[in-house]
Amino acid sequence: MDARDVGTLRVMTYNLRGLRDELDALVDVVRSVRPDVLAVQEPPRGATGRARLRGFAARTGLRVAVGGGGARTTALLVAPYRSVHDAAGLRLPWRVGRTRRGVATARVDGVRVVVVHLGLRAAERGRHVDLVVRRLLRGPDGPVVVAGDLNERPGGPSWAVLAEAAGGLQDAASVAGADQPTYPADVPRVRIDVVLVDHRLPVLDAWVLDDAAVGVASDHRPLVVDLHLPA
């Protein structure tokens, strides 16, 4: 299916690992999918991080809708033919010695997209998910997609809280029969990456990429979901 089909939104969630691995392979993986929305975890950071993210976006045919600032460990790239409104980064509470995390969000063609990258500690994940639900998923303005790296297996507490948000969100991979492991990329054993969607966005297809480039591009395999947009 072509990501540019009218009425279809192709969402790809991918942990880029700071662009520290095989950059050409990473670009090839994204270009092969031609996503409308790329939900990024672990974008490049530091003094040159934003410039490197823009360069990566340009090579993949996308543009940066949210990157840097409060988004921190997340970013949102969008195809140039898609409309973007209300783009913002949300800083999450931070404690000394831990990673400064954030959330990227925007309305893309009327769909509220929220990109998350949760931490390794269960207590921190719980606090951050509760904040995301309160700030972004309570009374959302239109259909909702939550995409990202939860650092938690399906059925865990963070999955459960997010599944109950915004009137109920479903795991697109499970709906499409694509509940396949995403981590680690070379020999995947668990799925910690997710695209959650509400009932107004029927799932047309979903898959985890498994070609040769995926094994060297990052330490995660990307999850891709095709959604039907409401008329």
Task: Provide a descriptive summary of the structure in words.
By secondary structure, the chain is of the alpha+beta class. The chain has one domain: 4-Layer Sandwich (Deoxyribonuclease I, Chain A). It contains 6 helices and 12 strands. The strands form 2 sheets. It has a 6-stranded mixed sheet with strand order 3-4-2-1-12-11. Strands 5-6-7-8-10-9 form a 6-stranded mixed sheet. Strand 3 and strand 4 form a beta hairpin. The longest helix has 15 residues. It starts with 7 loop residues before the first strand and ends with a strand.
Alpha carbon gyration radius: 16 Å
SSE topology string: EHEHEEEEEHEHEHEEHE
Mean pLDDT: 94
Number of domains: 1
CATH class: Alpha Beta
In CATH terms, the superfamily is: Endonuclease/exonuclease/phosphatase
Proportion of residues in helical segments: 10-25%
Task: Tell me how many strands there are.
Answer: 12
Amino-to-carboxy terminus distance: 19 Å
* Largest sheet descriptor: 6 strands, mixed
Features:
Deoxyribonuclease I, Chain A, 231 residues, 12 strands, 6-stranded mixed beta sheet, alpha+beta, globular
Write a concise synopsis of the structure shown.
With 231 residues, the protein is an alpha+beta fold.
Furnish the topology, listing elements before pairings.
Layout: E1 8-15, H1 23-33, E2 37-41, H2 49-60, E3 63-66, E4 74-78, E5 84-91, E6 102-108, E7 111-117, H3 122-136, E8 144-149, H4 157-163, E9 169-171, H5 172-175, E10 193-198, E11 203-208, H6 214-217, E12 223-228
Parallel strand pairs: 1-2, 7-8
Antiparallel strand pairs: 1-12, 2-4, 3-4, 5-6, 6-7, 8-10, 9-10, 11-12
Helix pairs in contact: 3-4
Domain Endonuclease/exonuclease/phosphatase: 12-220
Protein name: Endonuclease/exonuclease/phosphatase family protein
Keywords: Endonuclease, Hydrolase, Nuclease
